[in-house]
Hints:
Blueprint: E1 4-5, E2 15-20, E3 24-31, E4 34-42, H1 47-62, E5 69-74, E6 77-79, E7 84-86, H2 99-107, E8 111-115, H3 116-127, E9 135-141, E10 145-151, E11 154-155, E12 170-171, E13 174-175, H4 182-193, H5 199-207, H6 211-232, E14 239-243, H7 252-266, E15 276-278, H8 285-297
Parallel strand pairs: 2-5, 5-8, 9-14, 14-15
Antiparallel strand pairs: 1-4, 2-3, 3-4, 6-7, 9-10, 10-11, 12-13
Helix pairs in contact: 3-8, 4-5, 4-6, 5-6, 6-7
Amino acid sequence: MTAIKYEMRCETMTLAVIDIGGTTIKFARYADGALTARFAEASPATLDAFYAVLSAAVEKLKEAGPLTGVAISSPGAVNQATGVIEGASALPYIHNFKIVPELERRFGLPVAIENDANCAALAEVASGAAAGRQRVAVLVLGTGVGGAIIAEGRVAHGHHLLGGEFGYMLQNGDTLSHQGTAVAVAKAYEAASGEVVSGQDVFERAAAGDALAVRLTEQMYQALAEAIFNLQYSFDPEVFLIGGGISRNPALIPGIERHLDQVMATVEIADVKPSVMSCKYLEAANLMGAVANFEQQQ
Length: 298
């Protein structure tokens, strides 16, 4: 696989990089500013098997030369002060104990772990769509709405590690996660029509003029636009980045922009229109952000 160049402030580190997912764990070696030797393994069913897979992968990555440390992207609410992955995920066995010291003992190397959405945001700030920006909000649209807040170039975790959990925001009596995703749009279409569809199906039907699809996608754009407007006038980021599979849809950003214009017209006193862009990085974002997080922790 072609090496991915990653512009770092310091390129002297050589790292094993790991992206823990519910079904797949991705691995890479970071050296000389690039991610190389990328491979993946199925996510194990038990903690012992998890340790075995990660340890074998790190040993494999050591074959090309010594490592400085191990950088990890993980689901869950990562408490970097305690070395505990709080919260929950598809891999329940990684949560709620001091996993960082245990991994350091097994690898014989320093370990830094950060939440996957926060890693993706760090990658975008390091060398992606928000390169050079200090204050950024990233909304990741998937099954729900997650994301991250970058303040002064670093992740703003929040007191309860809830920074970036935008999906909990309430609008018109319901959460943003229930209004602002393609998954939510597909469920609403199914409920109204009785037809089983995907989010992509609904967007294609909206483009073809299907009245129900148009109404539901416009409602999604409106929910996202209102949330982004509210965040602009509270957190006040330089730019908003939209990630997740739906961010590849060319209709997404124009749809949000159109409804932002309507919101701005409604709130006449508001004179700063949010700047909204798609994320640059896709499948490599978590790996790249894990490197940035490791660097920040040193």
